[in-house]
Amino acid sequence: MEQHSKVGNFGDLLKILLDEKELSMGELSKKSGIDKSTISRIANNKQKPNINHLEKMAIHLNINLEELLKASGYEFKNNNNQIFNTDSDFSNFDDILGFANLINDKNFNGNIEKELSKCKLYVQTDEGKKLLFDNFNKKIDSIEKQGQFTDRLRQMYADFCTDGLTIKKYLLIGSMLLYFVISTDVIPDFVFPIGFMDDLVALNIVTKLLKNDK
Questions:
Q1: Which of 14, 47, 49, 89 could form a disulfide with 41 if both were Cys (CB 3.0 to 4.6 A apart)?
Q2: What cellular component terms from Gene Ontology apply here (predicted)?
Q3: For the chain, which residues make up each domain, given as ranges?
């Protein structure tokens, strides 16, 4: 929306979108589950929205997530708008990695890398392995849209359950699978594919590391 590009800050953009949709902050709160006081702080530029907020706002304000991400200060490596189509089934695995590559925010990617490092340590424990084995199938079967993303994770899980992996690959794959199962909530998994953005970024990070290990 061209007129939105001239808006100076995210709070003003949010107020414009609420006016356009004829929604009050209270109504957006009820629809999105975001606390009304949080929406108020964001609208008055007293709090920066996190990606979870932006996801929910994109859905309930019917606006492209990329526009909200950019308006709130997230940087992108290119301007591929199609990658944010919520109807995408990611039929090509390259589309998944392309989606993950769009995010060029060091803090966001850094947080995911930190969580993966924690998962790498945890998956070496009996408790971590049990958590993974007990919950992987249930978690992946709960995803409404099955496709290359879920196929890739299922294959990684199958590989993890064999004895044919090197220690390095075992830990890399295990960290990804445990990250997926635990839902460390860099972004909650409430909608696919957008709600799995952090899982996609994590998968991208691990895939690159696995390629470098060949």
A1: 47
A2: endomembrane system
A3: 2-74, 93-212
